[in-house]
Structures are given as structure tokens and as C-alpha cells.
Amino acid sequence: MSVTSDILTAIEEAPTIILHRHQRPDLDALGSQLGLKSIIQAAFPQKSVWAVGEMPADFAWLGTMDTIADVQYQDALVIVLDTANTERIDDERYATGNQLIKIDHHPNDDAYGLPMWVLPKASSTSELIVDLVNDSHGVLKLNQTAAIALYAGIVGDTGRFLYPATSAHTFAVASELLETGIDAATVSRHDSELSRGIGQLMGDILNQLTIDPDGAASYVVSQKRLHELNVSTEAVHELVSTPGRLADVIAWQIFVETPAGDYRVHLRSKGPVINELAKQHRGGGHELASGATAANLDEVKEMIHQLVTIVHEWRQAQ
């Protein structure tokens, strides 16, 4: 049997299914979670299907999260989506269910769950959910509610189909989702709209970004500036790709100070591998898109220096 067959069997047999994803979710985490929830509910209306975790206000247009009691995990199948390692799973109760499944497209550095379906070459976990539907031989079917969430997830994780992981299969999956009758323009508008504060912060980044001669770039966002602009720590994720629009930027880091005083780090690259750097600082992810945490400004400076070295060595090897 294939991995998708094993997952489908687990879904068919479980009376309760609880869907988790990573903390500080992006569109793919939420899209795959809410999309799969809608698909399972439509196929098995007698089952209890829950999607748990915090819902960022900026993504509320996608749907809502469920609040459930601990007792719901008894005899439950738990599916964790788009989450490379267990320490990043939103809601620690994921480990209290009857069975745990992992569906993800990040490098499989933390092999948890059985069965476990991890395809790092996939554009997104939302793409994998469509593949799961297609492998179900009609047991699972797409609907418009699911298609909107999954299409949003793909758009988000491919940078509107611009990132290297975008493949011919990605476009085929996106086309299948559009065939359900969803409005792609509405999804794209939600994805591209910026609040005034985020727009001002984008200007800050473009005007004040530090770029070394080899193209290693960095920017630090303070809590003071976030308060001035009325922007949440989570909302800065909308601007992660901004430095890459500059032609002379090869790889970059955006450091966002949290209320606790440490720094959430967004790393992106046009060529040099940066996920090993992320792993050294309590993070991880894809070779060209990762996240990490810096405890203080000293660690921020250390990461800036490390990225400069990585980009320089990459330049020398070209």
C-alpha cells in the first residue's frame, strides 16, 4: 500500500480527526489545515473534525479555528500539516491522540508520525492535499471552500508561482482548484493587500536595508517601530519577500523583535543554501526559505556575519 492509502485508511477508520499545523502559521499551514478539514467533513459528515491553533487576524478571511476540550483527543486521529519539527506544532495536545500522521513538504529533519508523508520537492503542503484527494479514488473530493484555502496556500508558499519549487504539477493542481469555480482574483487580492502600517514598514525595509557588496542583506524590526505603525509581530511575515525584489540582494534576513525581547528570523535566498544557518539558531526549513530565532542583538549580529560569509563563499564558487 502507498503512504496516501495508509493515510486514507486512517481517516476512514477514525471517529474523530484533529488537524494541527505550525505556530505563527502562514497561508500554506492554514490553507492545508482548513482545506483538509472541509474535504474530510464533506466526505464523512458523521465524523468530528477539528482544526486547532491560533488564527492570525490577517488571515481570518480563510476561516476560523476550533476550540476543543482535552477529552476530544481520546481515540482521535491527529494529523499535523506543514510542520517540520514537533517543537513548532501549535497546541501541545497533538501528542495525546490515538494516532499521529505527518504531512509536510519541508526537509524531514524530525521524523515523527506514522504514517508519515513528506515530499520536500512539493511546492506546498496544500499541493499535497490535492494529491491526497486525487489518490483517494473518489472517496475524498474537492469543494469550493477547500479549494479557496488550498489555492491560497499554494499562492502563499510559491510567492504567487515565482519561487523555484513551483513545478508543472503545481500549475496542474492550481488549475484543478480553479475548476471548482473559485475566484482566483479574490484570493490574490487578499494575499496582496497591505495595511497602511505594513505599507510603511515595507518602505522602511526598502530604504534602510543593509546590503553588503556580495548581496547579503539584513533588516531589524524593533517592537518600538511595530507599535508606532500598529503592526503585529506576525504581520511582518507579509514582507519577507520584499528585499528579494532588489536586484543586488542575493540572500537576506529580517529580524523581528518579539514582545519577549528575542527575535523571530525570516531567512530567504536566491541561491545560497541558508537552512543550515537556520538550524544553528533554533530553526530550519527549506534550502532557500527558512526561519530561526535569535535570543538577543548579539545573536542577530552573529547571524548577519554568518550570512555574509555564506553569500561570499557562494559567490566565490560560481
UniProtKB/TrEMBL annotation:
| Top-rank taxon, per record | Bacteria
Cite the Gene3D superfamilies for this sequence.
3.10.310.30, inorganic pyrophosphatase (n-terminal core)
InterPro entries, alphabetized: DDH_dom, DHH_sf, DHHA1_dom, Oligoribo/pAp-PDE_c-di-AMP_PDE
Family annotation (SUPFAM superfamilies): DHH phosphoesterases (SSF64182)
Ranges for the DDH domain?
17-154
Q: Which residues form the DHHA1 domain?
A: 224-309
Q: Which PANTHER family match?
A: BIFUNCTIONAL OLIGORIBONUCLEASE AND PAP PHOSPHATASE NRNA
Q: Report the protein name in the record.
A: Phosphoesterase
